[in-house]
Design a protein that fits this description.
The complex is a heterodimer of chains A (194) and B (381). With 194 residues, chain A is α/β, with parallel strands linked by helices. Chain A contains 7 helices and 8 strands, in the order αβαβαββαβααββαβ. Chain A has an 8-stranded mixed sheet with strand order 3-2-1-4-5-8-6-7, with helices on both faces. In chain A, helix 3 links the parallel strand 2 and strand 3. Chain B starts with 7 loop residues before the first strand and ends with a helix. An 8-stranded mixed sheet of chain B has the order 1-4-8-5-9-10-11-12, with helices on both faces. A two-stranded antiparallel ribbon of chain B has the order 2-3. In chain B, helix 3 packs antiparallel against helix 4 and helix 3 packs antiparallel against helix 7.
């Protein structure tokens, strides 16, 4: 998810000069891109030591926090955009974090692997959990403890009174706007709280 | 082996007004510098020390190969804070017992040793004194001020007292103030010293004695709080110093013998400490710790207090540090966020408790190194 085209697709959803909170910011590549190319400012949140170090080396602000501990550190509406890029699927309290994302940010952007992408469906029809480039783990050692689909997220967003501003799939670096639940390995949603 | 460090001293005649309303005049500050101040004087890094440390931050003294400075693993040529790049300054604080004017020195007005009459100094007073030394060295702006524990409090205070003179603050294993439990530990230490019959109300120098018993106990209590339960168990466990052969349990069934290894270790630490540390200094420095509370004049609102701090911050805490717990560092982070300050925060999963900030841990040192490399890049730009 840190390939250049994906970063550009996600970055395009973040207005120039935005105040950004990137939850699960990884090595800070996206945040650095937003700061350097789009005049944004803000913080990444990471738990992994190696990623925190990578962020420090890039010179992006990083806060080493466990997202399962919540976002109590951040005030309501204190960021223009809160990003959760490939983070949701690792969170024990994914729904709470989604609500927290909406509370802290004026808008939120969530991207996660779409389990309903057709190769995954084929794999399950054959009786096996999918192991693909996008979901490269065996079922017994995957860090993805929340497997959901593009459509599932629409339901979850509605349940939490989130207004979806834009939604599409990402596949091979391209946006998929027709049948994204079938044709895209990654689901992307931009939303605000109602 | 490390590089050779040379202690220096600078005298000040102009009185320094203290937070208490008192003033101190005719004082000296001991300091050391490492590296070279660049032409535009922009690469200075001030290192503030904690309770029992000094201006001897890094390097060794000539002819004393084991005299490494207290942060020698952090600071030096090619180290996390690279003295090939930065001009690093360590200053011994007023009231300390390592060279700067303190309770064992002579009061210029009375000709008597200060003893208990040495004025109470605060973190803010120390920062003011440090600023004077920087003035004298011709350093207007610090590339960074850094410190751990009480040193971190000084670094934080710099950003509030002289915000325009600090570009970065590196605040490690610190807190925005002490908790009641922390003050309580300090008070136990102070009572141990003050109730030692050799203390003589702080004027023991005239009696040619040292309240060593009190200092030992103060150090023992302190030392416990700098370690974690896990590390203590791993290092000593329930081990006995020398088990009695023939006794099924190995115990001596004594009440006063040193039987457990942890007892022996604490006594050793206490003895060592009481040989070199000044009792009045211990009282002064623990009091400075107790008093530090920048939010106090803002009705306890740390966010309001930190509005003045405009520099960039790196904060680091250690997961097993219960004396200056990660939650306390997070309070500082949280208070900086509403002001949209540039802040990074790392929580190092280290087993060593509060002491971790002085120890070799690649995750910690690499992170500080990465941060200082960025500071160095900014200097070039």
């Amino acid at each position: 998810m840190s390939d250049v085209t994906t970063i550009q697709s996600i970055a395009a959803l973040v207005p120039h000069g935005s105040r950004v909170l990137d939850l699960g910011c990884g090595d800070g590549a996206l945040l650095a891109h937003l700061v350097n190319q789009r005049g944004c400012s803000g913080y990444g949140v990471e738990i992994d030591d190696a990623n925190v170090l990578a962020c420090a080396r890039r010179g992006v602000n990083v806060l080493q926090l466990n997202l399962d501990g919540g976002l109590a550190m951040f005030d309501d509406n204190s960021f223009d955009v809160v990003l959760q890029i490939d983070t949701l699927q690792h969170l024990r309290n994914a729904e709470t974090m989604l609500r927290e994302t909406a509370r802290v940010g004026r808008t939120g952007v969530v991207a996660f692997p779409n389990f309903a992408h057709w190769p995954n469906r084929v794999s399950v029809l054959r009786g096996r959990m999918p192991v693909t480039r996008r979901l490269p783990y065996q079922w017994y050692d995957t860090p993805n403890i929340r497997v959901g689909t593009y459509k599932d997220f629409e339901v979850l967003a509605a349940k939490n009174q989130l207004r979806v501003l834009d939604a599409f799939g990402l596949q091979d670096g391209r946006e998929v706007r027709t049948l994204p639940n079938l044709r895209a390995g990654t689901a992307v949603f931009r939303f605000e709280h109602a | 082996m490390s590089f050779i460090a040379t202690p220096q001293s600078m005298s000040f005649v102009e009185p320094l007004a203290l937070q208490s309303g008192a003033a101190i005049h005719s004082y000296a500050l001991s300091y050391e510098t490492y590296g070279t101040l660049n032409a535009d004087r922009s690469n200075a890094v001030l290192v503030c020390h904690a309770l029992n440390a000094s201006h001897h931050v890094a390097g060794v003294y000539e002819g004393q190969p084991k005299s490494e400075g207290w942060w020698d693993n952090m600071i030096g040529p090619g180290k996390a804070v690279d003295t090939n790049r930065f001009f690093v300054i360590g200053i011994n604080n007023l009231g300390s017992c390592f060279g700067s004017t303190g309770p064992m020195h002579t009061h210029p007005d009375t000709g008597q040793i200060y003893g208990a009459d040495f004025p109470v100094v605060t973190v803010e007073d120390w920062v003011n004194a440090q600023a004077r030394l920087l003035d004298a060295l011709g350093i207007q702006t610090l590339a960074a001020v850094m410190g751990g524990s009480l040193g971190g409090m000084q670094a934080l205070s710099w950003t509030l007292q002289y915000p325009e003179r600090v570009r970065h603050a590196v605040v490690i294993a610190s807190a925005p103030n002490l908790t009641a439990e922390n003050i309580a530990f300090n008070e136990v230490a102070r009572r141990a010293i003050v109730t030692d019959p050799d203390f003589h109300s702080g004027h023991f120098y005239q009696h040619s004695v040292v309240p060593k018993r009190g200092l030992r106990i103060a150090r023992m209590v302190g030392h416990i709080t700098y370690l974690s339960d896990d590390v203590m168990n791993e290092k000593f466990g329930r081990g006995l110093r020398d088990a009695v052969t023939g006794s099924v349990t190995g115990y001596r069934y004594s009440t006063q013998d040193v039987e457990f290894q942890i007892e022996s270790y604490l006594r050793y630490q206490g003895d060592k400490f009481s040989d070199y540390f000044d009792a009045n200094t211990y009282l002064l420095i623990t009091r400075a710790l107790d008093y530090f509370d920048p939010a106090r004049s803002y009705g306890g609102n740390l966010t309001a207090a930190l509005e003045r701090a405009t520099c960039k911050f790196l904060l680091v805490s250690f997961t097993t540090d219960w004396r200056f717990a990660p939650a306390r560092s997070r309070e500082i982070v949280r208070a900086l966020l509403p002001h949209k300050r540039e802040v990074s925060y790392a929580e190092i999963d280290a087993p060593h408790g509060h002491d971790a900030f002085l120890l070799e841990d690649p995750r910690y040192l690499n992170l500080v190194n990465a941060y200082f490399n960025r500071i160095g890049e900014e200097l070039k730009a």
